[in-house]
Amino acid sequence: MSMSFDQYMRDMVQPMRDELTVLGVQELRLPDEVEEKLPNAKGTTLVVVNSVCGCAAGQCRPGVAKALQHDLTPDHLFTVFAGQDKEATAKAREYFAPYPPSSPSIALMKDGELVHFIERHQIEDRSAEEIAADLTSAFDRFCR
């Protein structure tokens, strides 16, 4: 019995996807979905660039989960998965200029414009609590 590589990867990353979708974060898996949602979202939008790396598991996704318990949160919650949904991730990254591609990373947008961005290097050396504090500070500033 053999399993295809693609099936193996889907099975392996599904729990990593679920960590965000269980919080109400909507996956954008195709470039057209990104193009439909990000520039047209009114109000505030959180976009998590998910990843299989350890800092995504240990700091990024838990930090996002803690931040979303805050009283004030973005109107829209989206995620793309780097290395898995490559075209959707590339399309989302077009909205994150001037920042270079980074995964994991977290973007906060307001009315389709980037207002706050957390790069990988700001994730890998910080705790989930520090990331949540960074996000909730941005929520307080931009989600009013």
Automatic annotation (TrEMBL):
Gene3D superfamilies: 6.10.250.2150, Glutaredoxin (3.40.30.10)
Source domain of life: Bacteria
Protein family according to the UniProt entry: Belongs to the bacilliredoxin family.
Name of this protein: BrxA/BrxB family bacilliredoxin
